[in-house]
Amino acid sequence: MQAIKIRENIYWVGAIDWDLRNFHGYLTQRGSTYNSYLVLDDKITLIDNVKDYLAEEQISRIKSVIDPSKIDYIIQNHIEMDHSGSLPLLKQLSRDAKIFISPKGAEGIPKHFNMKEEEFNVVKSGDVLNLGNRTLQFILTPMVHWPDNMVTYCTEEHLLFSNDAFGQHLASSERFDDEFSADITMEEAKKYYANIVMPYGRQVQKALLALQNLEVDTIAPSHGLIWRKDTSKIIQKYKKWSENKVDDKALIIYDTMWQSTKTIAYAIQDAFNEKNYTTRMLSLQYNHISDIMTELLNAKYICIGSPTLNSNVLPSVSAFLTYMKGLSPQSRIGLAFGSYGWGGQSIDIIDNTLKNCGFETMDPIKIQYRPDKETLEEITTRVKNNL
Ligand code: FEO
């Protein structure tokens, strides 16, 4: 395993997780990488680490450039285990290395590993570390997406080591965005934001404000490709996403038992189509909840349907409602719908969840048994008149 040179005396020494498909519930259909960077300067510096089961890969890449015992500094931007798993082993190999970490990182890391808080050098926003020919500046970015997150900026290189921010779960042998499909890279960045960063929009805005005075031409995140072509574009996307700016787009998300709820779903879609909205029909039988969240990131209308089963929603709908509520999308308009035989509780459960998410809601659509043609036309007209 070789290090990959990304700048003069700066190497990528991370690990590629080709087989990863489940990142705590997020379908990572293209795998992922855990990026680690090695800066060769008067002080040899390692920035971020990798998952524990890929530690040997990272160490082998480091060894292709230097003896790990020569590392002077380790910057641990984030303590989540996909970036800190190999730290204990690295520390054994680089016994004299000083580890730099945020205050919350120093508090948290002894709760993950058999390491003591005193082993860490705590840094705060604005602190600078001189490596010789280069300087590193630390900027705390709490809750993007853990309390301990920080980013590290190399002034002379105009290079931001952004850790989770601007990342994508994407395994590839390519390291830069201009070497890979721009559409796939942006799609995976969008999915990453929707499924990991979305609850922390306000904190993202604070972080963007802190970064706006820096001259950044390259962003090296801890997952996926390094942004050197679409750097401004991904920053603009983060701005839009963090402000909950949406498009004229409607999601119709549903599951069905005997096709009645599905029929209602298509009648609702007709209303949006007639008003020239972009629509997505998202059956929970065929779409992963994390892919639906990607679509939801820029959708204004969120319509969710379930028939009533045992006085409740279908389990697939329940899982989606739980997942969506946790990711706290804001400023959307919701619509609950479904068919029922008796009781009809599913529609109220969905409507209440949409309200609890803080969405404006349209009057729910609740149809007993099978909707006939006239009823479906009425549904289309009713929804259309509300747009
Ligand atoms: Fe990629 Fe928050 O870890």
Protein described:
Helix content is 32%, strand content 24%. The chain is α/β, with parallel strands linked by helices. The termini are far apart. α5 crosses α9, α6 runs antiparallel to α7 and α8 crosses α12. It is built from 12 helices and 22 strands. It has a 7-stranded mixed beta sheet with strand order 1-2-7-8-9-10-11. Strands 17, 18, 19, 20, 21 and 22 form a 6-stranded parallel beta sheet that branches. The chain has a 5-stranded mixed beta sheet with strand order 12-13-14-15-16, with helices on one face. The mean pLDDT is 97. It binds MU-OXO-diiron.
Structure described in brief:
The protein is an alpha/beta fold. It has twelve helices and 22 strands.
Notable characteristics:
387 residues, 6-stranded parallel sheet, 22 strands, 32% helix, 24% strand, elongated, binds MU-OXO-diiron
How would you summarize the topology of this molecule?
Layout: E1 4-7, E2 10-12, E3 15-17, E4 22-23, E5 26-27, E6 32-34, E7 37-39, E8 45-47, H1 55-63, E9 73-76, H2 81-84, H3 87-93, E10 98-101, H4 103-108, E11 120-122, E12 128-130, E13 135-140, E14 150-154, E15 159-163, H5 182-197, H6 201-211, E16 218-221, H7 231-242, E17 247-254, H8 260-274, E18 278-283, H9 289-296, E19 299-305, H10 315-326, E20 333-340, H11 345-356, E21 360-361, E22 365-368, H12 373-385
Parallel strand pairs: 8-9, 9-10, 10-11, 15-16, 17-18, 17-19, 19-20, 20-21, 20-22
Antiparallel strand pairs: 1-2, 2-7, 3-6, 4-5, 7-8, 12-13, 13-14, 14-15
Helix pairs in contact: 5-7, 5-9, 6-7, 8-12
Bound molecules: MU-OXO-diiron.
Residues 78, 80, 82-83, 145-146, 164, 222-223 line the site of MU-OXO-diiron.
